[in-house]
Amino acid sequence: MSYSVVMCAHNEEKYIKKALESVFLQTVKPEKVIVVLDRCTDRTGEIVKEFPVEVIEKREKRWENSYAENLELARLRMNSEFYAIVDADVVMEPNYFEVLLSEIGEKDACIGGKVVTRSETLLGRLLPLWERTYRISPSRRPRGCALLIRNNVLNKIGGFADAPAPDTYIQDKALELGYGIGITMNTQAYHIREITLKKTIKAQFSAGVARYVQGKGLARTFLHSLARLRPFVFAGYLYGFLAHKGKLKAKPSKGDEQG
After folding, report:
1. What pLDDT band is residue 132 in, cutting at 50, 70 and 90?
2. CA–CA separation, 252 vs 256, rounded Å?
3. How large a percentage of the chain has pLDDT more than 70?
4. pLDDT digits over 93-126, tens only?
5. Is residue 73 in some structural domain?
6. From CA 5, how far away is CA 29, in angstroms rounded?
7. Could you tell me if residue 47 is inside a domain?
8. In this predicted model, what pLDDT tens digit does every residue of 54-65 receive, in sequence order?
9. Could you tell me whether strands 54-58 and 108-117 are parallel, antiparallel, or unpaired per DSSP bridges?
10. How many domains does the chain have?
11. Which uninterrupted H or E stretch holds 166?
12. Phi then psi for 129, rounded to 5 degrees?
């Protein structure tokens, strides 16, 4: 089974070298590694070009959701059996993709491993304790920062849409098509970005807006925020409602287009 890695970066000079080293140390090597340089103004591009990767340099933003656009630009350049998303601030255990490839079910659209925060800030040291609340989530899903997706499912969905949290969008569409999604605890990835209160609030708020745009229910979002101790997710959801953020229109799958 072959897979290609896609890594999107906007000014990630502090982390991307470790992330790419982690990719190339995998026990099962990727067929191709594509890095999308999204309007970088630091040394990210110089660092990336030290590795045997295919580079896409994006100089202007055409979609409202730039990260989704980056993933779609890369998708159009690969034809491996699996599409792997690896964030530019994530490092993985050497067997990460070997385990994912061996454990993904025949009817699963995607699979991810356990993701743990490794940050030297005070909040970063506390975050792994909060991450344990993920186990009580009523709808556990693999994290999008180190995710393996079947390419044929991506094609059926029609690729990535101009949507916030594009990995969640893909998982939602895959479930609608009758596919499963998997998580394994037999391998780990580590989020190495420095965690601050400001970044945490911003990430939660953005996640809340994304939940509103994607049509998640008010009560479900409230319970998610309560159970997962993420109050700013609910605040972001309310902002999406009050700001009249447009809900995401369904993107027709290839089967729908042909019908």
Report:
1. low
2. 6
3. 83
4. 999 999 999 999 999 999 999 998 876 665 555 5
5. yes
6. 10
7. yes
8. 999 999 999 999
9. unpaired
10. 1
11. helix 166-176
12. -65, -40
